[in-house]
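Troubleshooting log. The previous run stalled partway through. Resubmitting the same two chains, unchanged.
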Amino acid sequence: MKTRVMVDPVTRIEGHLRVEAVVEDGVVVEARAGGTLYRGFEQILEGRDPLDAVQLTQRFCGVCPTAHAVASSQCLDNALGIMPPDNGRIMRNLIQGANYIQSHVLHFYHLAALDFVRGPDFPPFIPRYEADYRLPKSTSDAIVSHYVQALHIRLKAHEMSAVFSGKMPHCASVVPGGVTVTPTVDKVTTFLWRLKELSDFVNNVYIPDVMTVAEVYREYAEVGVGPKNFLSYGAFDLDNEPDVTKRKRFFPMGRVTGGRFEKVDPARITEDIASAWYSSPTHLAPAAGVTTPNPKKAAGYTWLKAPRYANAVYEVGPAARAMVAVVGGGHPAHVDALNAALAQLRLRPEHLASVLGRHLARAVETRVMADAMADWVLQIKLDQPVATPFTMPEQARGVGLWDASRGALGHWVAIKNRLIERYQAVVPTTWNASPHDDRGQPGAIEQALVGAPVKDPENPFSLVRIVRSFDPCIACAVHLLTPRGELLKKLTVS
Amino acid sequence: MPEHGFTRREFLKWATAATAVTEFSQAFLPRVARALQQAVKEYPLIWMQASACSGCSVSVINTIHPSIKNLILDQILPGHQLFLNYHSTLMAATGKLSTDTALETARKHKGKFIYILEGAIPTLDDGIYGTLGEEDGRQITMLEWVRRLAPDALAVLAAGTCAAYGGVACAKPNPSGAKGVGEVLKSYSIATPVVNIPGCPCHPDWFIGTVARVLLYGLPKPEELDEYRRLKAYFGRTVHNRCIYRDYMDEGIFATQFGEPGCLLEIGCKGPFTYADCPVRQWNSGVNFCINANAPCMGCTEPGFPDAHSPLYQRR
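Second attempt completed without errors. Output:
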């Protein structure tokens, strides 16, 4: 017998997401994920001063504004034909790195942990789905106490980011050309002390807790697998090479498909709208889209488009970065830490694509990021410039490709008459939570849900465990589409 | 009680036992324990996100005194306990179980619950551009949630500039016809009092202070609010009048490029038109704020943000 299971809203994620699953004989046979909020950001950006994009695109998302700040700034750097000086590059990395820690700690303890650990018996911890909580009471209690500690840690991570960004969320100092903030010795010092406190937490609490959960929920290393294609744009620039595909990054750019490492050609990315509430032409490059909203479209079930790379479905995020690093050769610290964690759990790299694998990849990269930042902050030169001056050209095009904490984030701009003619962003959750495409291929989360066991349709805890392992961020994903039937200009990706 | 459950008292006990990891003052503990045994005033709270980015929720959990633990787990003020019955980012429940909790809270605590809205409300085409949950196979719009719950709330708090005045969600051409909460209530003649806590995002102190004002002294008196229904205590003076870079201005030193020292007026600072106490309060536990990072004030607490302040990096 087939049963329809609807989870709407999926809470403890960013934004508005619904998941619908068809369950047959206790197993999901089909799933649909839909974003239920539409904002129309690109249309808001048209006609504005290009510099304003860095501020406005941060408002896609209050959890990951730094990623939009950096991607948008790099997109404009590219359009302006400039690169930031070392100080600007380093401080952007620090602002972003601190927010990776903030976002990952928040995700594990405050968004995902309650799927595995029973919380206290008062709101907001009740009511809840009564999942198969397996940890002994003392361990479970300890992890819930870390929930409280982690609130403090993520606050500290925000403070670290604000040391160089001015404020969080929505950082003030990231601009085209670099940053505005003047580095001082007290900023370096306060950053280092906070970083030390965070590193201690990550090494002694976060990673051990993830390992503890992984040990008792071992079968989740085989649950929620997804499309087995992985895409990372990479993040954290280590040099000032203008060509983003050649730039050295701490997390490298790349793809893994069929178990092999491949390069990324941004021109192979298209977006389908067969299942989205739009009636415009489909399968266009993100920077050349024509979009007509139609909330009453019969085949539509989401405001999210379906981005595809060479027509294939890709997973993005920490597991994708991990896979690209392990298969393609990432930073040795990252690769070694991943291999050590996998070995400790008696898992193989292919298990990274699973509920447990995603949590593990997130925790491991938090640790190696924190270690790397301790070096980067000391590379700041107090007496050197922080931004490269520029003049706004009459016309220009730019692209910024950068991995947010949740995965591959692309911004595209076309400038005409010194104003934004066209702006487009394809964000991580649009990849992961994408709907069925024109060929009928389900999105990454939809694929990950198929095969999941659901014993009780009234209590579908296994489904939300899978969805949350991707750390969906719907506010980011639903800004994308332009409503009200406007014909947009064509743009070639440069 | 389930085997692995905690009562609130047990939870506090072990949470505070781990003193190395919490900021909970030992001196304060016995009082909390006493207060728990005595009558604690309880305030049910429903916090919904509409056309929002979650930035205000993320900002509010940056509160230091009270700590976020005080705010969501024990008492926001000694003897005053918020019950966060609905907050989609934090609550354990999901799906229908979560939205049923919101409805149940509103029904059971009619006239007594505090309704916090984050984000603007899409109104175009009956609000179809933003939905939350479903009922009888039909998706419920945020507009419908507001129309259902707001009339029965003790007060509506609009957290952030989007909820207060529309903000970025309503920037031209306002594709989803989004509106600030006050405007929506007015258009449906819903008389529940609204207090705005603007900012993009709102500062945790502004949020906590506004909530504490309501809990300790009741709803603000008309003379305590300005014409935009925000507390004058936080939004009564301009950023410019208390700016840390006033000396640059007095000396005629103006930045003309990003990263240059100097008054930021020529690269778009909206401090003179912006009512907020950022220069004295600062952000993120006082580590910094926009101008201190040489970034011009965007005027994010104002009803005109962002359109009236655009281009953001040009002098108005």
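Takeaways: Residues 39-233 of chain B form a domain with the Rossmann fold fold (CATH 3.40.50.700). Chain B touches chain A through 98 residues (CB under 8 Å).
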